[in-house]
Amino acid sequence: MANRDDLQVGGYFFGSYEDATLAKREMKNAQYLNERVDSMTGKQVLAIYDKMLDEKMFKTPVGWEYLKFLRGRLIEEGVDEELIRPIPIYATFSTTNKDNNDYSHIAKMHVKNRKAMIPELKGKLRTSVWINIFLVLLVIILFVITFNSSNPNILNYKQAVIDEYASWEQELTERENAVKEKENSLKGY
Question: How crowded is the C-beta side of 60, counted as CA atoms within 13 Å?
Fold first, then answer.
């Protein structure tokens, strides 16, 4: 949860952490721009002011204050007020206009959309669970095959190598014995 101090920026108390963060960012932008604008002429400042309005660079009261400051500076420098565009505010403050200020219908619409999505999400969840069960069974089957396989693998390679060398040793011993018997039988003639 956001700290109360985190919600205060530039003398304003914001209703959400996101808005306060946006205001902090706008404050930094205003400081940066103010350093650059100090050495500019009125026409250059007017061009920057218009660009900021076109790009909707400032959306909080903190940014609007900087725009108001620039507007005042332009007027002081003798720029015709008719050339200076007004600062647009994209918010509604009056309580008399219920349609614009009452956002409960939007919240209700979101609840209806969520309720409509529940069966679809249940179906996706059910499908996901079945796929996971199938994959777990597949892994179990692969382990069973691996443990019961006579081919050497990472799980039984040591025993397979030992068994192979033991069978070679037994085979060699049998051949030696067969050769010795042949030699003995040839010597006996």
Answer: 25
Q: Return the number of other C-beta atoms located less than 10 Å from residue 126's C-beta.
A: 10
pLDDT in tens, 111-147: 556 667 778 888 889 999 999 999 999 999 998 888 7
In this prediction the pTM is: 0.48
Total count of residues recorded for the chain: 189
In sequence order, the 6+-apart residues with CB closer than 8 A to the CB of 13 are 7
Report residue 12: phi and psi, to 5°: -115, 145
Residue 42 has phi, psi (to 5 degrees) of -60, -40
Query: What is the rounded distance in angstroms from the CA atom of residue 77 to the CA atom of residue 146?
Result: 85
Largest alpha-carbon pair distance within the chain? 135
Contact partners, residue 60, CB within 8 Å, separation at least 6: 9, 12, 14, 19, 22, 23, 26
